[in-house]
Amino acid sequence: MVSTKAPTHVPGRQRFGGLFSGDYQTFLALFGFGALFTAFENLPKLRSILFGQSDVDFPAVFGLLIVLCAIFWRGLLRRGFVWAEPAALTWMDFAGVDRRRVVVKRMWTLWLGLVVVVGYTGALVTAIGGGSRDVWIAMSALTASGAILAAVTARRTAIHGETVAPIVLAVAGLAVAAAGLGPMAVEVLAGALFVVAVAVAFGGEPVSGLGRQELVDGWNARILRAMAAVFMDPMLLIPESRPVPWLSLRRPTTLRLAWAGVLGRSRYAAASVVIACLVGAGHLAFPAVPVAPLFALGAYAALVPFVGGLGELWRNPGRKRWLGTSDWELRLVNGLMTAVLGLGWGALLGLVTLTLGVTPAWPVWLAIPLAVVAALRTATRPPMNYDVSGGAAGIQALRGVDVLVFGSVLLSVLV
């Protein structure tokens, strides 16, 4: 008689994330699913919000969906699912539980969430535009092939230069939108992505086989992000800078530390490029959406990771005293550095809009310096004061975002 080992449940861990517990998780799940399905009952209203009086440009929608697949692929390549709680990890090792199953299960859960987001976006926009059968098939094939490619690359250890791959996919989305290609070309692209996924699936070590130290490091980073959310400190959500050897050997100055903060976070450059492609494709696909908030939000998301070095210095008075610099010098040097990055990102966005054949009005480009100011304001936020009311604490936590929202509304009125 052969007996199979029953799956072991980690003590204290809710099954299915507490979805069927009857607690607040169940309420949030029901509310979320209800809101998602209600959108399909208000298609005319959503059409006027997204497209106005214009016809639905399905090649632009195809391009947007391809870029969306690229940005979610980039997010999955971060491999944020590789973590394990030290106590649970010790218990699993003692009980003989395979830690790989836990990591793989977490990866598939995150992967499923991304697939649902991409698939839902494609289905909703196709339903709003009244897409034909060929459009539905192309959307489904693209979502499926992109999901397969993201899964087979995220489940294995990092490949050298893999962060460039989402940029290539995003550029392919821009090409589809700019050339006005139809469902047949999208299906060919989906087939090419599937072939690449099959080729990458063989070889390499599974990421679930990483050692205890890597899992604990992932847990520590996760705890830091959770505490940042609880204490409303957005700068703690930005991971630490990687060391820059040729700068660390020299005498620290404000300019060198600013350079080190940017170069140590160069891994976010690929995400910034994909964000620029997403903003341009979104502007082309949804002509009725105000352009200024779209540009400002994209620039802010692209620049915030690179002001993490300033944020670390600003919230640590001991480091500022060690550096021996004043607050205005920190603002000036890091502001100039962020302005250069914003100028580069704005030039990239201009190249994207030129490729897509769209010409935004000139006041819209003021959203780039607006995002620079907002990012610097976020990084130089004073310590939280928890003696005030919840509303005042929320205003403190949204420092930088307040300028972004107010400026975006003002630019929308000017445009």
TrEMBL record:
Keyword Transmembrane helix on entry: yes
InterPro entries associated with the record: DUF6297
Transmembrane residue ranges: 21-40, 60-77, 108-129, 135-152, 164-182, 188-204, 268-286, 292-311, 332-356, 362-380
Pfam families reported for this sequence: DUF6297 (PF19814)
Source domain of life: Bacteria
Name of the protein in its database record: Uncharacterized protein
Keywords per UniProt: Membrane, Transmembrane, Transmembrane helix
